[in-house]
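Can't attach files on this board, so I'm pasting raw text. These are the components:
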Amino acid sequence: MRITTLAGGIGGARFLRGLRDGLAAGTGAAEITVIGNTADDIDLFGLRICPDLDSVMYTLGGGIDEDRGWGRADEGWRAKDELAAYGYGPDWFGLGDRDLATHLIRTQLRTAGYPLHEITAALCRRWEPGVVLLPMTDDRVETHVVVPDGDGTRAIHFQEWWVRHRAALPAVAFHQIGAESARPAPGVLEAIREADVILLPPSNPVVSIGAILSVPGIRDALLAAHAPIIGVSPIIGGAPVRGMADACLSAIGVPTDAAAVATHYGARSASGILDGWLVDTVDAEQAADLPGHGIAVAARDLLMADPARTQDLALATLALAQELRR
Amino acid sequence: MRITTLAGGIGGARFLRGLRDGLAAGTGAAEITVIGNTADDIDLFGLRICPDLDSVMYTLGGGIDEDRGWGRADEGWRAKDELAAYGYGPDWFGLGDRDLATHLIRTQLRTAGYPLHEITAALCRRWEPGVVLLPMTDDRVETHVVVPDGDGTRAIHFQEWWVRHRAALPAVAFHQIGAESARPAPGVLEAIREADVILLPPSNPVVSIGAILSVPGIRDALLAAHAPIIGVSPIIGGAPVRGMADACLSAIGVPTDAAAVATHYGARSASGILDGWLVDTVDAEQAADLPGHGIAVAARDLLMADPARTQDLALATLALAQELRR
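---
Top answer:
Structure tokens for the assembled complex are below.
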């Protein structure tokens, strides 16, 4: 079975680990291809940093800090402290000493001319994530956030909004700078076309999944794919499970609830990207109208609180896909 | 009093600290300008690393690891371990987590187009070394070491020879690649011309002082300087005080003894660069012939074992200069 997923950072990474491990524990041999968001990427201190790709790679490769959910376990902060002591560059980004090695290698390979998908593959040779991890594009795409500034607005990098301001500045709009001329990385469209199942993990609908969809060709490929597309709600009981998806959803006029996100994605029968939607059991009633609009629904405990529950919900997406295929 | 010194790494840095602190403890206000060796510089992991400039900056700025003599105190090695775990790049270079911040800033400023002397000044604004630290040149000069290889030879970067092989491969020759077209950094020739005293600390005569002298114009400026030039022997009792100067001296046919190094530098009266030479008391007898060849000699305990002794020997160079001026 060929499974293709889109993925942002922490939520996507945990879902993927559950999927991989749930499949490995069962009978199903599967090839999993992950199309990772790169619009969160940022250049800091001359280094190219890909937070979402790294979260997936570290989580699936066993290097993640489980408590923070991002960055490396047994991390140190000496380099970051020193950069701050020099008073040089932003001090709000969590640039760990171990993590630095990944960025140094990526930056050097970029300088040598390698495209991001090859660099990602090279880094994954160490981590052996058990999936094929592809960046959504080799081209530069950057999410900028338009925020109020006096009487007007200004645009800041997504990381500045997310990490420095903790999404506390009201977002007027999100722009994926560069997206209009970006091309899907090699393998991305093929993975969508040839998949038996396509999954959207509970990643941020706006700045993770939305950013991936901003790359021309990807949305069309999803619409045309023969595989069922099953999404997992990132919202439980009207609140984001993790992160600050509500601050993103409100900027695009989508209520923070499980059904509204599904409606935002839309049913494939109405030129959207969803065939099925997994909601938490607390949201089953609220999602009752979705099947009437072409989106099948299943309800499950969606809190990825431990490996067993995470595997259970990941496998539930496959069960829903199986139902739809019948 | 304007004092100008050449300097390599650890030995030069400790001498300079003694000089600065000895002067501060006494009555003499002095402006000290240090012309640092940059031929040990190396690019690793896309970072520009200047070991000798950093040793001077960290030592005078209070950031040095006193036991190792190089790199930062309270250093960590997570990034280095990770680079090795990726199997990427050389694993023999001591790239500490704190140290990395210096290299990141330097590299980013270089990429932005700043010359090394301005970058060095920017880094020194944090460290306040109490001296003006100048690179010998803004241009790229690299010491390569010719070593045996099968029936022939090959050239390796000085750091590979020094750090990786611990100078255990016999050195056939040293080449300062790029020196012929390098220009002294702004301020270097002026500092030599306008000095009241010029000092050569007990740095490596071949790959530190020799490398600085390889930059066209510097040797001529020393020859023409009105200030007396006083050197400190890096050899005590036939052995280098620190480092592996003997392996360098033998490659250029100079015996590892205090008098031979002075003769190698030569008296200014014979187109060399020395007016005076400080030797250890154990070498006083051996150096007895030098005055007859135009090099005044003073003998002192040269082991920089503690701050008091280091200050004493540093001030002794000034006393010898004073004698020569009379």
